[in-house]
């Protein structure tokens, strides 16, 4: 019986060792599963945290890019407005210059008209002077046959008449010029 008892005890010890081993294995497996579950949860939390960080970083980059884009757009718009203002100012200056040019052209045309009138009057006066000189020559030729005293008197009368005529013409021209300047 001792042998049976020893065998029984040995078997009981083996069974107890196996049970203890199974219990230890079960505990180790449970502990391993718990640790694995904790590690998985930790990995998932880290992954979620990194994903959120990446999303936040992407959102920040997107916001920064939008801000830069808006800033650039605003700067471009401001530059376009400045250029538009400069162009409008240049157009206004050009319009003023064209208006002044038109006025100057009109003044030149009026001055040309006045000059033509003066030239016409001068040409008429020159023709009149030529006619008077021709008439005087004819008289002098006629007087050449008279006495020196008579010729001298006739010459003085002609000079006096001519001086009166020239004075009257000068007064008339001064009056016409004054009238033309008053009208201009």
Secondary-structure topology with pairs:
Elements (H helix, E strand, L loop, with lengths): L1 H142 L4 H36 L1
Short summary:
With 184 residues, the protein is mostly helical. It has 2 helices and no strands.
Please describe what this structure looks like.
With 184 residues, the protein is mainly alpha-helical. It is built from two helices and no strands. The chain has helices at 2-143, 148-183. Helix 1 (2-143) runs antiparallel to helix 2 (148-183). The longest helix has 142 residues, at 2-143. It starts with a helix and ends with a helix. The mean pLDDT is 83.
Alpha-carbon Rg, integer: 64 Å
Proportion of strand residues: under 5%
Summed over residues and divided by their number, the pLDDT gives a mean of: 83
Low-pLDDT stretches: none
Major beta-sheet overview: none
Order of helices and strands: HH
Q: Can you count the beta strands?
A: 0
Q: How does the overall form come out from the CA principal axes?
A: rod-shaped
Number of helices: 2
The SS-based structural class is: mainly alpha
How much helical structure, as a percent, in the residues? over 70%
| Separation of the first and last Cα atoms | 160 Å
List keywords for this structure.
184 residues, mainly alpha, 2 helices, rod-shaped
């Amino acid at each position: 019986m001792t042998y049976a008892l020893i065998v029984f005890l040995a078997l009981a010890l083996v069974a107890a060792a196996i049970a203890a081993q199974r219990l230890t294995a079960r505990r180790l497996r449970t502990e391993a599963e718990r640790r694995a579950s904790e590690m998985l949860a930790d990995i998932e939390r880290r992954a979620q945290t990194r994903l959120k960080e990446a999303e936040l970083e992407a959102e920040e980059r997107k916001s920064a890019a939008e801000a830069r884009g808006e800033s650039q757009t605003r700067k471009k718009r401001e530059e376009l407005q400045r250029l538009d203002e400069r162009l409008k100012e240049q157009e206004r200056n050009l319009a003023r210059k064209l208006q002044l040019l038109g006025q100057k052209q009109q003044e030149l045309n009026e001055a040309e008209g006045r000059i033509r009138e003066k030239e016409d009057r001068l040409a008429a006066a020159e023709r009149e002077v030529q006619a008077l000189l021709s008439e005087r020559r004819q008289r002098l030729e006629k007087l050449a046959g008279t006495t020196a005293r008579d010729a001298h008197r006739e010459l003085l009368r002609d000079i006096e008449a001519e001086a009166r005529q020239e004075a009257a013409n000068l007064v008339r021209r001064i009056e016409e010029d004054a009238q033309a300047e008053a009208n201009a």
